[in-house]
């Protein structure tokens, strides 16, 4: 694809951009003058394809299932000569009955949620960190429910545990990045009305994502790892 010049000249590799929060992030980065390479699962047409049609030359689409290591290897090979100013991994799923206690969750659902929410995103980061500029940002979409300190009510136990695991893995990754000057972000977007968040959530995508993108852009100038919400407030680990 021929890349058109953009106002910022910056680019983001956005993993999980087909719909929902990822698609909204792609649209917001375009508004900020960035170019976007977004990944989708499978070959079906998505909302990201509509966004690409509306912004010729500024949106690229590639395929990736973060739970499929062979697909990650193939993507890494395709992007071998590319660099980006930001890598952000947006991934999230829950078990069919989020009210289950952890002792009630089936082994298959445990593996699926933990792989999608924690292992998969970290594999992507480990596999694609070389494609991010030396001072570029690497971030993941976590959740406020991943905060161990803030868990005073329980509920959604498997989802909470998977996001807490993601946070811990990011802290381990950050420890290996110490002294590099790289900004790292674990983001809590708030409880949003999406397929995952449900109809009763208090926030719309429009309430959260523009602010979340602003937080990420500000974070570019701050090295190290931070756990932040969509308003830029620090979330306790």
Question: How would you describe what is shown here?
Answer:
- Helix content is 37%, strand content 19%.
- Strand 1 (11-15), helix 1 (20-31) and strand 2 (35-40) form a beta-alpha-beta unit.
- With 237 residues, the protein is α/β, with parallel strands linked by helices.
- Mean pLDDT is 92; it is low at 1-6.
- It has a seven-stranded parallel beta sheet with strand order 3-2-1-4-5-6-7, sandwiched between helices.
- It starts with 10 loop residues before the first strand and ends in an 8-residue tail after the last strand.
- The protein has helices at residues 20-31, 47-54, 69-78, 107-128, 157-176, 205-219; strands at 11-15, 35-40, 59-63, 84-89, 132-141, 183-188, 224-229.
- This is SDR family NAD(P)-dependent oxidoreductase.
- It holds the Pfam family adh_short.
- InterPro entries: NAD(P)-bd_dom_sf (IPR036291), SDR_enzymes (IPR052184), SDR_fam (IPR002347).
Q: Which short descriptors sum up this protein?
A:
237 residues, alpha/beta, 7-stranded parallel β-sheet, 6 helices, SDR_enzymes
């Amino acid at each position: 694809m021929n890349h058109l010049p953009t106002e910022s000249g910056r680019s983001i590799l956005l993993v999980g951009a087909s719909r929902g929060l990822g698609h909204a992030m792609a649209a917001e980065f375009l508004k900020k003058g960035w170019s976007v390479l977004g990944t989708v699962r499978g070959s079906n047409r998505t909302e990201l394809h509509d966004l690409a049609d509306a912004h010729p030359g500024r949106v690229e689409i590639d395929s990736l299932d973060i739970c499929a290591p062979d697909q990650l290897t193939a993507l890494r090979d395709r992007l071998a000569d590319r660099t980006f100013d930001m890598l952000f991994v947006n991934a999230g799923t829950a078990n069919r009955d989020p009210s289950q206690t952890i002792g009630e969750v089936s082994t298959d659902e445990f593996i699926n949620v933990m792989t999608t929410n924690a292992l998969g995103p970290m594999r992507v980061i480990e596999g694609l960190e070389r494609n991010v500029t030396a001072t570029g940002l690497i971030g993941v979409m976590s959740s406020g429910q991943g905060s161990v300190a803030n868990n005073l009510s329980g509920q959604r136990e498997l989802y909470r545990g998977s996001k807490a695991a993601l946070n811990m893995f990011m802290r381990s990754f950050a420890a290996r990045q110490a002294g590099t000057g790289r900004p790292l972000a674990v983001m809590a977007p708030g409880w949003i009305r999406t397929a995952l968040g449900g109809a009763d959530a208090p926030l719309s995508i429009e309430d959260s994502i523009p602010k979340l993108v602003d937080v990420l852009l500000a974070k570019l100038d701050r090295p190290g790892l931070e756990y932040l919400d969509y308003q830029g407030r620090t979330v306790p680990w």
